[in-house]
Please model this.
Amino acid sequence: MKRVWAALLLTAAALALVLYSGRQPAETGEETEDLIVVGMSQVGAESDWRVANSESMKAVFTEENGYRLLFEDAKQKPENQFSSIRRFIQQQVDYIVVMPVEESGWDSVLQEASAAGIPVIVVDRKVDVQDETLITARVGADFYAEGMEAVRWMEQTYKDPAQLNIIHIQGTHGSTAQIGRTQALEDGLAAHETWNLLTRMDGDFTRAKTYEAMTAYLESCEPLPQIHVVYCENDNEAFGAIQALEAFGYTCGKDAVAVISFDATREALEYCRQGKISLTVECDPLLGPLVEEVIRDMEAGKAPEKERHVKVRAFRQEDITDALLEGRQY
Ligand code: GZL
Ligand code: ZN
Model:
């Protein structure tokens, strides 16, 4: 009997605590003492970058830190994100954090979140909505600036080339990372009439898709083209492209095929140290702490910064040292 009394007292105390803090207990099924409930919709697990990004979120939004994290993986399908967010709204979470797959299609579901009074934090890529007030804050990179880092490297590396043959491998169509990195290369092509786009293909940010697409392209070429630059919109595409190129007898590296990639994950830095990747542009995936800062600000009644950009850095072979690799968290 004593245990029953104790349980009753505990529940009453927890309820009092919840009422005191004015936080409506989110209906997450399990009893949530005064944890901040965060509904999180992640793109998927398509790349090394994405895995590091998810780990960074899970490392911050823990019960010890005062959170209950409801983490859902959309398997790169926008429609899965919309249903996740509608679930979060029903569960009356305190915050919605979304890493959007694509920019379009968000207006109605974010209006529903707004009507439910749930702040939405957009992380990494952007959403394209009519009413910007539907987004409380965005934390992520400037993808066009990343692309321009690569275009400037091309300009410095190939001074007035007779003809620079370029293959462009795009990321997930309609994602901000693809849009920004593509725009930079488009601007480079427009600015240099001797830059020649051999072909553009869809790598969807994965190694497998890129390996298939590059293999199919090279099989269609008779004779094999002279390739100077392969512009891959993330590291995993670069790994797939290199595998296919080498299978067709190409050499990737200095004074051969220059492979450019984005993310600067550990494996890409290794490729860069071997010279197989000529330039990899960093896009920091460790965004968990920045997202938490937004939530802490709001919990303290402060208006969070509307837009937080992470820094852009590029790595060439000569930049890769043991110390750099040891210091990397992803
Ligand atoms: C960039 C992120 C991209 C990475 C890819 O911030 O959106 O998605 O560059 C990932 O590796 O798939
Ligand atoms: Zn596509």
User: Anything to note?
Assistant: Residues 16-22 have pLDDT under 50 and may be disordered. The radius of gyration is 23 Å. Residues 208 and 307 are 33 Å apart (CA to CA).
